[in-house]
Amino acid sequence: MTNRERVLASLDHRQPDRIPYNIRFTEPARQAMAEYYGDPDFESKLGNCLHILHTEPAGSWREVRPDIWEDQFGVQWDRSIDRDIGNVCNVSVTPGSLAGFRLPDPDEPTRFADHAALIASTPGQFHVTDLGFSLYERAWTLAGMENFLVAMVEEPAFADALLDRIVEFNLAIIEKACALPIDAMMFGDDWGQQRGLLMGPAAWRRFIKPRITRMYGAVKARGKRVFIHSCGKVDELFPELIEAGLDVFNPFQPEVIDVYDAKRRYGERLSFYGGISTQKTLPYGSTTDVKDEVKRLLAAIGKDGGYIASPAHDVPRDAKPENVAAMVEALQNQ
């Protein structure tokens, strides 16, 4: 089987010849592993099954002050500590300024200029277009997290209007991405923290669910699969996400979700991507702990398909290099 065939079999809930996997890294972890392996090109040799494409136009990030980077939406990110993403340090949209706020141009030609060539050059991979910060996260980065959460209660008209503007932008991106020979769209929208939903289930159903149903439907109508990346304890939403058209849930954090129970309850209708502990096992376990955990996940969550093995998030800076190498070895030597 090719990597693409493995993923397709798994998402169809058929047992592939081996469980597909995908490993991504934060920048500090990438540097640590390059030093550990003595190979700056080590990622190309991992055997990852997903080829992830992005929709940002050329030159969409610019450093406006030392360590302050501005994205295509005008959101400024302080990367003085977190070099991968950073922390939002401005407010771009308020109820008073929304009418005059312009979102980026979804038709900007450099967004997809190289996608056809990238896809053609990797025919054995499962191609995923990643639309990160796709709804709630895009809204709070523009308006401020506290401001937007309060708006859901006190200024729902503003929350609705901002979310609707974001959805229209996303639908234009979806149309263009799905016109290419990709296999799936991945949406990024962190709704959870360690104990549950940030906005609570009622607000999620009121503001988020109808809009993701529309976006997921646009992807499914074009014959592609739907992935969601949503950190935290959000497993209470699994039935509704399935109803909305979700195919694959990520990151599947074992620290907050009982991954084995989730497989038992939803494994016939939903696939999972993640599951290897980045908060406990990779930073604090032994190499034996890592290998045992990976083998348990492959056997139980990977049974009858429905699984893409992966760390529960991009490998963090505090993961022990020898543990990451043990995970890679266990995944490669199935």
How do you describe this structure in short?
This protein is of the alpha/beta class and 334 residues long. It has helices spanning 3-11, 27-37, 115-120, 136-143, 145-154, 156-178, 200-221, 238-244, 259-266, 281-284, 287-300, 321-332, and strands spanning 50-54, 62-65, 68-70, 76-78, 87-88, 126-131, 184-188, 192-193, 196-197, 225-229, 248-250, 271-276, 307-311.
Unreliable runs: none
CATH class: Alpha Beta
Number of domains: 1
The name CATH uses for the topology is TIM Barrel
Main sheet characteristics? 7 strands, parallel
Task: Give the mean pLDDT.
Answer: 97
CA-based shape: globular
Radius of gyration: 20 Å
- The SSE order reads HHEEEEEHEHHHEEEHEHEHEHHEH
At CATH's second level, what is the architecture?
Answer: Alpha-Beta Barrel
Structural class: alpha/beta
Please provide the count of β strands: 13
* DSSP helical segment count: 12
Write the layout of secondary structure elements.
Layout: H1 3-11, H2 27-37, E1 50-54, E2 62-65, E3 68-70, E4 76-78, E5 87-88, H3 115-120, E6 126-131, H4 136-143, H5 145-154, H6 156-178, E7 184-188, E8 192-193, E9 196-197, H7 200-221, E10 225-229, H8 238-244, E11 248-250, H9 259-266, E12 271-276, H10 281-284, H11 287-300, E13 307-311, H12 321-332
Helix pairs in contact: 2-12, 4-5, 5-6, 6-7, 7-8, 11-12
Walk me through the structure:
This protein has a single domain, classed as TIM Barrel (Alpha-Beta Barrel), CATH 3.20.20. With 334 residues, the protein is an alpha/beta fold. The chain is globular and about 55 Å long. The model has no long low-confidence stretch (mean pLDDT 97). Helix content is 40%, strand content 15%. The strands form three sheets. The protein has a seven-stranded parallel sheet. It is built from twelve helices and 13 strands. The two termini are 14 Å apart. The longest helix has 23 residues, at 156-178.
